[in-house]
Amino acid sequence: MRFSLSFFAVSGRQQVPCFLLSFAALRRQLLLCCLALTFFGLSACADQPVYVASPKIAQPPLTPTPAPPACVGSYHAGQLSGDFAGYPDLEEFVELMVQKHGFEREYLFGLLSQARRKDWTLNYYAQSDQATKRGPTVGGWTSYRAKFLHERHINAGVAFARRHQAPLQRAARMYGVPQEYILGILAVETNFGAFVGKDRVLDALTTLGFDYRRRGEYFRGELESFLLMTRKERMDPARPVGSFAGAMGLGQFMPTSFLKWAVDFNGDGRKDLWDPEDAIGSIANYFVQHGWQPGQAVVTPLHSDGRPVLLKPGYDSRYSLAELRQAGLTPVRPCSSDNALSLLLLRHQRADQYLIGHPNFYTITRYNNSTYYAMAVHELAVTFKKML
Ligand SMILES: [Ca+2]
Question: Signal sequence span per UniProt (predicted)?
Answer without folding.
Answer: 1-46
